Amino acid sequence: MTPKTFPSPPQPRSPEEPILEHGFELFAQNGVKGFTVETLAKDLAMSKKTIYKFFPTKEILLQKIFQYIMTALAAHFSRVRDKDINPLDKFINVMSEITKTISKVSMSRINEMKARYPAVWKDIESFRLARRADFFQIMREGQEQGLIRNELDLEIAATLFMNIINSVFQPEFFISNQLNPKMVIEIFRDIFLRGIVTSKGLKYIEEKL
Questions:
Q1: CA dist 92 to 54, 126, 184, Å?
Q2: What whole-number distance in Å separates Cα of residue 125 and Cα of residue 56?
Q3: What pLDDT does 86 receive?
């Protein structure tokens, strides 16, 4: 007799999660200046005292909001990285998720946050650099499957890739050049991919992009 299997019950949400989720929405809508604990508490039908219990200052709250978003993004990277799919699809997927997340907030709001709360921005930059390991693994799989050029030093390629993103993709870059982040990231993704793939890999991505 085949034993019955049941889905695992959903993990209970912590009391902080609704605060962090809605906090990000409020930040995306109103920016740093328009983001207030009072509005957040009112929207969530809770007291400001409850929010301050978990997050004593506005800076700590913003820091935890972005850490929450980055943790969710890192979890998505991990799930995609472990899937049994074409490595180039993994590369495209994680870049698309980055684009989707960035597109939720205007660059002017990100730039304001960077100027007023540099410690929060430093956390974001550290998170981006830490994704080097994810991209390195994806590229290594691609190389093993004959999709990425064998002569490439992937240690250098992955480091170069992430540092270009961290150094160039700053909010003021998009603002001063009046560039759409989604479009820029997609162009950068295409240029980078076409530079590292083999003819087999090129044929595959041209059918996808």
A1: 37, 22, 14
A2: 24
A3: 97
How far is residue 193 CA from its own chain's centroid?
19
Contact in structure between 135 and 77 (CB atoms under 8 Å): no
Three-state SS letters, the chain: CCCCCCCCCCCCCCCHHHHHHHHHHHHHHHHHHHCCHHHHHHHHCCCHHHHHHHCCCHHHHHHHHHHHHHHHHHHHHHHHHHCCCCHHHHHHHHHHHHHHHHCCCCHHHHHHHHHHCHHHHHHHHHHHHHCHHHHHHHHHHHHHCCCECCCCCHHHHHHHHHHHHHHHCCHHHHHHCCCCHHHHHHHHHHHHHHHHECHHHHHHHHHHC
C-beta of residue 32 within 8 angstroms of C-beta of residue 116: yes
What is the residue extent of each domain of the chain?
67-208
The residue with tokens 């472990």 is 82
pTM of the predicted model as reported, rounded to 2 decimal places = 0.85
Length of the chain: 209
Question: Is the torsion defined by CA of 176, 182, 183, 186 positive or negative?
Answer: positive
Mean pLDDT by 10 residues, the chain (209 residues): 43 82 94 91 94 94 95 95 96 94 93 95 94 96 98 97 94 96 94 97 91
Select from 3.30.420.40, 1.10.357.10, 3.10.20.30, 1.20.1600.10 the CATH code of 67-208.
1.10.357.10
Q: Residue 12: what pLDDT?
A: 54
pLDDT at 209: 76
